[in-house]
């Protein structure tokens, strides 16, 4: 089993936190670009996509920001992918339907809503702009980057899973690294097998009390997580036991910081359990 460096996991989660600070209909202003620079990267492009359609609201035609591409001085390219609010609506969907994977070289079936969003992931708001994988391929082929790390939270974790295997199988760079947080299952056992063979350097961080990584369920359809899981176990009576609180990226950052012995991260004020110390 791969060991995990919790400081590295916190670092990439921090990049996702920046992406989640940008409103779905917003843009990367100078302040956000400065935050990315402070984290060690030069901002390159915004990632856009069609919002996740759900049974509650189809979100037809909604184009939202999903994250960004950036590069470090050492030529590490990062693809950072956020969650959207519709993930909580998705939790209420009962179907979790599967469709054949459309990623060349992969096998099996994928969750239909997630793969539809992935197919729309691109570097411009308009249809027809370069897909995320093609933009990454361009930077790698041009020598602007020599490595790629792909990271995401929640729905962004599922999209990061698709993007990582797509890069591994369909670009000249076959060893991408993936850090995901609170990712749901993205496909069946055959897809997971394809992914695990192509992307051994995967760090899938989950919170034991978070519902999202437990979905879609493994029955009646054969959904299966990709490797490798690193599970966080919240201490009792610290965090409110609600779906949003256990799923928040800030909760994950606080839990990881406890393992790393790092400071600077706090639980959201509205997620602190009644009676818990205010400074946690």
| Rg calculated over all Cα atoms | 18 Å
- CATH class reads Alpha Beta
Strand content: 15-25%
Strand order of the largest sheet: 1-2-3-6-7-9-11
Class based on secondary structure composition and strand pairing? alpha/beta
Short description:
The protein has 280 residues and is an alpha/beta fold. It contains nine helices and eleven strands.
Give the secondary structure arrangement, pairings included.
Blueprint: H1 6-21, H2 30-38, E1 41-50, E2 63-72, E3 76-81, H3 86-90, E4 98-100, E5 109-111, H4 112-120, H5 132-141, E6 147-153, H6 155-170, E7 177-181, E8 187-188, H7 189-198, E9 202-207, E10 223-224, E11 229-232, H8 243-247, H9 249-260
Parallel strand pairs: 3-6, 6-7, 7-9, 9-11
Antiparallel strand pairs: 1-2, 2-3, 4-5, 8-10
Helix pairs in contact: 1-9, 4-6, 5-6
Structure write-up:
The chain is of the alpha/beta class. It contains 9 helices and 11 strands. The strands form 3 sheets. A 7-stranded mixed β-sheet has the order 1-2-3-6-7-9-11, sandwiched between helices. Strands 4-5 form a two-stranded antiparallel sheet. A two-stranded antiparallel ribbon has the order 8-10. Helix 1 (6-21) runs antiparallel to helix 9 (249-260), helix 4 (112-120) packs across helix 6 (155-170) and helix 5 (132-141) crosses helix 6 (155-170). The radius of gyration is 18 Å and the shape is globular.
């Amino acid at each position: 089993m791969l060991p995990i460096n919790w400081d590295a996991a916190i670092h990439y989660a921090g990049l996702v936190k920046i992406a989640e600070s940008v409103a779905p209909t917003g843009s990367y202003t100078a302040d956000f670009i400065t935050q990315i620079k402070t984290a060690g990267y030069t901002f390159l492009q915004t990632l856009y996509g069609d919002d996740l359609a759900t049974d509650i609201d189809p979100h037809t035609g909604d184009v939202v920001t999903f994250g960004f591409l950036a590069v470090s001085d050492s030529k590490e390219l990062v693809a950072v992918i956020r969650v959207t609010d519709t993930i909580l609506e998705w939790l209420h969907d009962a179907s979790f339907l599967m469709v054949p994977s459309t990623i060349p070289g992969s096998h099996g079936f994928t969750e239909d809503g997630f793969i539809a969003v992935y197919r729309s992931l691109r570097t411009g708001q308009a249809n027809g702009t370069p897909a995320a994988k093609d933009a990454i391929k361009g930077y790698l082929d041009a020598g602007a980057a020599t490595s790629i790390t792909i990271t995401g939270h929640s729905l962004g974790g599922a999209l990061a899973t698709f993007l990582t295997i797509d890069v591994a199988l369909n670009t000249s760079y076959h060893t991408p690294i993936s850090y995901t947080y609170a990712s749901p299952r993205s496909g069946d056992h055959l897809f997971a097998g394809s992914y695990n063979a192509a992307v051994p350097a995967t760090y899938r961080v989950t919170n034991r009390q978070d519902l999202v990584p437990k979905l879609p369920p493994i029955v009646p359809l054969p959904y299966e997580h990709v490797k490798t899981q690193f599970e966080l176990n919240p201490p009792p009576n610290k965090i409110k036991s609600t779906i949003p609180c256990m799923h928040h990226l800030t909760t994950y950052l606080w839990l990881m910081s406890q393992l790393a012995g790092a400071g600077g991260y706090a639980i959201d004020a509205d997620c602190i359990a009644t009676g818990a110390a205010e400074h946690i």
